Fold each of these.
Amino acid sequence: VNDTIEDINLYLNQLGPEGGIAIAEALKINHTIKDINLEHNNLGPEGGKAVAEMLKVNKTSITINLRVNDLGPQGGIAIAEALKVNHTLENLNLYCNELGPEGG
């Protein structure tokens, strides 16, 4: 586990749901990364759910940018549930994710 990196910027890397799931799994056990930029990676609802599961256990991350990832209502609902138990996140950007009324 890397213990020195504090910021990770993966903007526009075409990660897709699989890449989002892999990054979220890695962030579950990382204790140094504070700022995460996953903007414009087409994570989709499954990637959003994986990020939500990470947020439930990650106690380090302060800022997460999830702009333009097509999370949809399912991803939005999962992240909202995760925020109920995460007390360290200070900044969350969900701009342009088609959350709709049920996911927002």
Amino acid sequence: FEPWAHRRFLLKRIKWTTRTKEVEVGLCSKAAAANGSNYYAWTHRIIVANSMNTDELLSENEKVLQFLSLHVRDCSAWHYRRYLLQRLGRLKEDRFAEDVANRYG
């Protein structure tokens, strides 16, 4: 747990770039693959995903589907997938509401 908390501490102090997100997601993937149902790695990945835009979230969703095809019993990965789907659903609703407001508001 402590290494992940330290990473979050450091990440709060830097500017998030696409490369930063890629490194963090890669690290989480390695930790999850090495240790089944690694709750802390997937929780850290949620924090990284909070900084992602829609295209990045869609790409992340594909990566998680690939992971889950190999690790079907990883409950933490399924929880993360649920988070992504909820997040993508909210983003779509926000875009729809914004589009309606721009057209008719």
Amino acid sequence: MCSQQRLISLQGRWEPAAAKAPDLGALLQPWHWHHPWPAGSSGDGSRALLQCHPILTRVPLQVRKIVKVIYSSLPSITAQPALESLGRALLMLASKYPREMVSSLLGCSPTCTSVTITMWREMLSESPAVEKVLQELLRVLTNHSLRHTSPSIEDWPRVLALAAARILPEIIQLPLVLKEAEAIFPQLFLALLLQVSFTMELTLQEVEIFWEVHQQHHLTPIRAAVQSLKVLLCGVGLQKQDGGHRGAGWLGRASQHCDPLHGVQVVARVMRELPGALRDPIFHQLVELLSTKFCSWEMVAMVFLVEMLECVDLSEELHCVVSLFSTYLQSQSVGTQQLVLRGILQLSKRQDTGKLSLVALELASNLPALFEDESGTVRQLSIHLFLDTLSFVEGREKRKMRKEVYRSLVPLYLHLHDEEESVAKASQKAFLGAARFLHWRRLEHLAEVAQFWQIGECMLVERRKSAAQDYLGQSLLYLQSPQEPLRREAVRFLGEPQN
């Protein structure tokens, strides 16, 4: 099946220009685009067209039809007055109906033909339209929904997102577009970067549109996104820094080896070298995105955020970042959990995070849920970070933290017997730290000299009856642990004498 036939299959009613395309002159009577304007015509033809013709009074419902007819008929239009008036009509439609115009034009040619480039340039020839159209392109770029309501390309969000990335290199150098792109650079940069998240998951039907047309240039969807990212970075002047361009190159090379996440990591490390005035707005936008959406691109976004933590100013973002980490610790993705834990570990090493006391309690209450994770890395990191949170709290938060520490004793005690040696060692350090935090001298001594067999009895005997009952209730959960040593220790703990 040829690429044109595939487009027909995907778009449903779409037809190429040679196959019964509606006559533009008949559709937009009384204006005849194929001939010069009649002598003595007065006023702006495009304005009269918009105001007078009945089909244009029914937009936005008719915008798709109008754009498709213009797209199929434009190659046959030669009269300069007609072309100029048509350009003005496109500009006015873009100003009034940017959403419909953007989706319609992207749907006409997802792979960006010379005809669509001409139409885009006409739409972007004046500032008001440029701002509206670029904001709409940004919205399309960040819509990675799998839902589609019809066979038409305009109703396939991910196809439109790829098409939007494809058109950006063609329009970004237009002076008015470049000016607006600089104003929304953080949003555009991240929108293109986050396309990595779904280009790895495209269906065959989605990929075919791009691959069939561009296979001689090996322009796969992810390479199209990388190309757009390079053009954007160069367009806003970052080629002088060399950093952004080099980072995009790494992203492209990583994508060739099916490791785009590594490419994202490299891009983030390179972007750390940029001046704070460019770097900090990107980080702020990333925090805002992750705070408001829980999306398929969370892994890509978290990779970038964790890499940027080392260099950004957190004076105003610290509370948001830690709250964000607390939320994403609950992610179903083990990879995301590991990234969050590494991010918290990085925060704990910074010298300017004294305010962590305000949010350490929230972290301390969420981390124990990860002690029993199937990933040994997640268990080790979460236990290690729980110990770190004890040093974050100050003042009144210490009293509240004591309750969280008491709740953590049983899980930490049982994981002293974890099958993973690294987890068992992390548990011993964390248990010792918890005993010291609670000023529980006997427990501290037993942990210090590794007399683990006496710890259970000490916990049950030296605490009040209600607390001992809570400990026994926690240990019941470990009877279902996939680790045999933990199940065995939980049984032994349940059999300990109580006060």
